[in-house]
Amino acid sequence: MTKILLSVCLCSVLILAISTDDQYHTHDDIDGLVDSKTKSNMTYREIMLQFADGYCAIQEGLIYQDKTIIKTGALMIQDHPAPKSKPWNIMKPSDQEGFKQSLLYYDEQIHKAMYKIEQSLKTDDWLEINQNIHELSKSCVSCHMTWQNKPIK
Ligand code: HEC
Question: How remote is the CA of residue 147 from the centroid of ligand 1, in Å?
Answer without folding.
Answer: 8
